[in-house]
Amino acid sequence: xxxxxxxxFYQVGRTGSLTAxxxxxxxAVSAVSRQISKLEEETGVPLFERRxxxxxxxQAGEVLMSYARRxxxxxxxxxxxxxxxxxxxxxxxxxxxxxxFAWDLLPNVMAQFRQQYPGMQFKLNVVGANHASRMVAxxxxxxxxxxxxxxxxxxxxxxxEAAPIFALxxxxxxxxxxxxxxxxxxxxxxxxxxEESSTVRQLFDIACGMxxxxxxxxxxxxxxxxxxxxxxxxxxxxxxxxxxTAHGRAAEDGMALIxxxxxxxxxxxxxxxxxxxxxxPPAVAAFSDFLIAAIRQIEVQQELxxx
Length: 307
Known about the structure:
Elements: H1 4-15, H2 18-25, H3 29-43, E1 48-51, E2 54-57, H4 59-83, E3 92-97, H5 99-103, H6 105-116, E4 121-126, H7 129-137, E5 143-148, E6 155-162, E7 165-170, H8 183-186, E8 191-194, H9 199-211, E9 219-221, H10 224-232, E10 238-242, H11 243-253, E11 255-259, E12 269-275, H12 282-306
Parallel strand pairs: 3-4, 3-5, 8-9, 8-10
Antiparallel strand pairs: 1-2, 5-12, 6-12, 7-10, 7-11
Helix pairs in contact: 1-2, 1-3, 1-4, 2-3, 6-12
């Protein structure tokens, strides 16, 4: 149902190596090489640049790779329908997300969804924001939910909302009763921040640079959980993060979330992403709708909190 040459091309494009593709396909390297050469002859254009460190897709190759990804996923869907196993509740849904969404939101939503469809299976990949998006674009995940600063090629955005950054602190903190804070307000206090590649840190650094502000964080970590715990255990500390990430735990743990005034800290968006032009299987589409509805409910809470 799917041509050998397309399967071979997809694996070479995905791995960047004839050898690695051959290993995944359980065939000889020479067989993969012949199929790639055959495909390039048929198309009349080079699909790969042959480099010392492997095979790199050309612009034409990228176009064909997008088609190959969709073709593979749609074939899986058709085969599932033929076998009668594609009903909602009988499918594995693979989700990629950054760490904050894996704390409470996704486990809670997945558990609630399984109450309606007990046979539903989930696989949650917790990775960096950019990696989560790439997993969907590459066909390694059905859905990604992440904070984004810029569009990502190869994705369709099922849902988008503003995701401003809030200050997080204990309720007995001197600033906890304020309705709005600025970065200058935070300077007298120990600051806990995520690592440099996070959207929170990137926007924080931009905002500080625009105002000539310097901070020496008391605590930094790639783990949002560690940042949260440090702040919870430190009476004077302040952390920065998203409302959706921390609101549930903050309410239970006696923590306060205060909006920040700087416009730079309002520039990211929360996005639910799927592969561009892909027809989603019924179970994936149903879960995506369920997830978006849950996010919208939290958005209402955020608006009330910020009012």
